[in-house]
């Protein structure tokens, strides 16, 4: 198995065309300067040590050295074997509300950003647990299936925004059902962590929680927002242009629905935590989840990855040394070994 530990370093290969363009430009300027002094063939006879091919050779060596060093910086690695290991953990699916109301700023910097921070902090406390991600507004869909790759989860979280789901609304019941479908037939302890402001407009979320419990899935809820609520900001090209208004022109105030989220948590045999500006309920939820029974499961990974970067860096540095040792002028030895040179004898 082969992989690059830092594949983004390969973008440095784009510097090679810059080297070539600079070399061509420098060579053209040099020729232009020579032509101002006289005829080119005559100048060559006056400069017997000049070598045009040496510059090209040095460029080739420089580009090859740069390419090898870049590959070395990307850190090529080889995995020697595929190994099956035993892990113990639980399966968690985060169901995150990305409707426009989550942009409200009663919880700084916004409900959505605080929710993303809460998930990130929870990931920091997990170990060997598999996590999935479901996004929902007027419709729910699976953003990321169950995985132990927490780095990928954080990457997905960083790019989440309300524009990812064109159908607005808050279909909490659909979100719970979609999250429940992520588990399949796993034997692990399973839980859904629902993070929303609770303004459900679409379906029967409590019934969906009852259905999840009947399949051995617990449902925890984290309420994002304050009871007093806040207006929903509107953005255009990243700039806030005002607040959402109803048909009568009144500013819409989005409020946290504590009652519904408590009912969902009760039906889902979980707990409800309300976030605020000082904390987002992460510790309380984690303590509850950590008490769930952790089931052993198999996981296949490539082990014994070995770094190979040193070979590429060494070869690249060697080419740089060779390039530095090559003179731009013809060597005296090359002149002495000119087998085509003839001498005339005085007759």
Describe it:
By secondary structure, the chain is an alpha/beta fold. The chain is built from 11 helices and 13 strands. It has a 6-stranded mixed beta sheet with strand order 5-4-3-6-7-12, sandwiched between helices. Strands 1-2-13 form a 3-stranded antiparallel beta sheet. A hairpin with a 3-residue loop joins strand 4 and strand 5. The longest helix is centred in the first third of the chain and has 22 residues, at 52-73. The radius of gyration is 33 Å and the shape is elongated.
Helical amount? 25-40%
Number of domains: 2
Sheet with most strands: 6 strands, mixed
How many angstroms does the end-to-end distance come to?
76 Å
CATH class of the largest domain: Alpha Beta
Q: Over all CA atoms, what is the radius of gyration? A: 33 Å
Trace the largest sheet across and list its strands.
5-4-3-6-7-12
The general outline is elongated
Low-confidence runs? 333-347
> With helices defined by DSSP (H or I, 4 residues minimum), what is the helix count?
11
Counting helices, strands and paired strands, the structural category is alpha/beta
* Average residue pLDDT: 82
Shape-level CATH architecture of the largest domain: 3-Layer(aba) Sandwich
In percent terms, what proportion of residues is strand?
A: 15-25%
CATH superfamily of the largest domain: von Willebrand factor, type A domain
| CATH topology term of the largest domain | Rossmann fold
Total beta strands: 13
Give the SSE string: EHHHEEHEEHHEHEEEEEHEHEHH
């Amino acid at each position: 198995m082969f992989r690059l530990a830092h594949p983004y370093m390969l973008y440095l290969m784009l510097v090679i065309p810059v080297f070539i363009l600079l070399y061509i430009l420098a060579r053209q300027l040099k020729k232009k300067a020579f032509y101002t002094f006289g005829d080119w063939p005559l100048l060559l006879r006056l400069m017997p040590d000049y070598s045009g091919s040496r510059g090209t050779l040095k460029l080739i060596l420089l580009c090859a050295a740069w390419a090898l060093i870049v590959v070395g910086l990307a850190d090529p690695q080889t995995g020697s074997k595929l190994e099956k290991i035993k892990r113990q953990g639980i399966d968690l699916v985060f169901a995150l509300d990305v409707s426009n109301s989550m942009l409200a700023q009663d919880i700084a910097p916004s409900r959505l950003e605080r929710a993303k921070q809460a998930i990130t902090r929870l990931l920091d406390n997990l170990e060997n647990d598999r996590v999935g991600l479901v996004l929902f507004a007027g419709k729910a869909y699976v953003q990321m299936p169950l995985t132990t790759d927490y780095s990928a989860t954080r990457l997905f979280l960083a790019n989440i925004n309300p524009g990812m789901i064109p159908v607005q609304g808050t279909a909490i019941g659909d979100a719970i059902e979609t999250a429940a479908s992520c588990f399949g037939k796993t034997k692990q302890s399973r839980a859904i962590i629902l993070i929303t402001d609770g303004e459900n407009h679409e379906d029967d979320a409590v019934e969906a929680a009852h259905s999840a419990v009947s399949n051995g899935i617990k449902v925890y809820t984290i309420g994002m927002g304050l009871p007093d609520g806040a207006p929903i900001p509107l953005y255009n090209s990243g700039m806030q242009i005002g607040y959402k208004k109803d048909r009568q022109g009144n500013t819409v105030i989005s409020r946290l629905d504590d009652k519904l989220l408590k009912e969902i948590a009760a039906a889902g045999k979980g707990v409800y935590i309300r976030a605020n500006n000082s904390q987002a309920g992460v510790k309380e939820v984690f303590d509850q989840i950590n008490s769930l029974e952790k089931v052993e499961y198999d996981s296949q990974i490539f082990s014994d990855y070995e770094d190979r970067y040193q070979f590429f860096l060494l070869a690249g540095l060697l080419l740089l040394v060779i390039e530095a040792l090559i003179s731009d002028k013809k060597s005296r030895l090359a002149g002495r070994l000119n087998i085509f040179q003839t001498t005339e004898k005085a007759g």
